[in-house]
């Protein structure tokens, strides 16, 4: 929703390609994931916050839900320096992810709480991605601060948000919490509302 085709091209021209060319010019050949953490201003200009040589969490979960190609085949092509010979296929619909966190996060939080409702959530459209979970006595329990990410697609950002919150509502454990405002700016943009 923030990254239109025009903004995407601007990010590629101003951030990604100069970074990749700069690394190559310095003799640093890189094969892997390069995560650019960006802020996009109201005019659609990117500002770099950080670069990571890994997937971003939880940003990756909505992206992975849209990926229709095999991630394994894409990685193998990158390792074989043949990524230019294949094209990733994407679901064009918006996706949205909601992090379900353990009580106390980002400070101290309890571990070992039994997570209920995963089977019920699996009956809905979308996917629950595990992050801070463990298997204990054949039950899924909390083992980290960011425990799960309820992620869903939709025909609009508003619809993706509804679907993701429906998933999140099926899951619970003692101390579980999540933000109730994920996607509100994108939904306002989608509706043409002023964001001042």
Describe this structure in words.
Helix content is 32%, strand content 20%. The protein is α+β, with helices and mostly antiparallel strands. It has 2 domains: 1-54, ATP-grasp fold, B domain (D-amino Acid Aminotransferase, Chain A, domain 1), CATH 3.30.470; 95-190, Glycinamide Ribonucleotide Synthetase, Chain A, domain 4. The strands form 3 sheets. It has a 3-stranded antiparallel sheet. Strands 1-2 form a two-stranded antiparallel ribbon. The chain is globular and about 50 Å long. Its cofactor is Mg(2+); Mn(2+). It comes from Pseudomonas syringae pv. japonica str. M301072.
Structure, briefly:
Pfam families: GARS_A, GARS_C. By secondary structure, this protein is of the alpha+beta class. The chain is built from 6 helices and 7 strands.
Please render the helix and strand layout as text.
Elements lengths: L4 H21 L9 E6 L5 E7 L7 H7 L4 H9 L15 E7 L16 H5 L4 E4 L2 E4 L2 E4 L3 E8 L3 H14 L13 H7 L6
Antiparallel strand pairs: 1-2, 3-7, 4-7, 5-6
């Amino acid at each position: 929703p923030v990254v239109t085709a025009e903004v995407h091209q601007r990010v590629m021209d101003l951030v990604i390609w100069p970074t990749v060319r700069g690394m190559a010019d310095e003799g640093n050949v890189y094969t892997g994931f390069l995560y650019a953490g960006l802020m996009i201003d109201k005019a659609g200009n990117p500002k770099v916050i950080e670069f990571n040589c890994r997937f971003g969490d939880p940003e990756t979960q909505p992206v992975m839900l849209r990926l229709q190609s095999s991630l394994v085949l894409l990685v193998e092509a990158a390792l074989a320096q043949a990524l230019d010979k294949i094209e990733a296929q994407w679901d064009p619909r918006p996706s949205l992810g909601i992090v379900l966190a353990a009580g106390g996060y980002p400070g101290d939080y309890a571990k070992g709480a039994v997570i209920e409702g995963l089977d019920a959530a699996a009956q809905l459209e979308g996917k629950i991605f595990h992050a801070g979970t463990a298997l204990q006595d054949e039950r899924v329990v909390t083992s980290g601060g960011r425990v799960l990410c309820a992620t869903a697609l939709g025909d609009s950002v508003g619809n993706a948000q509804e679907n993701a919150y429906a998933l999140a509502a099926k899951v619970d454990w003692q101390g579980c919490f999540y933000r109730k405002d994920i996607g509100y700016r994108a939904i306002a943009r989608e509706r043409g509302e002023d964001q001042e």
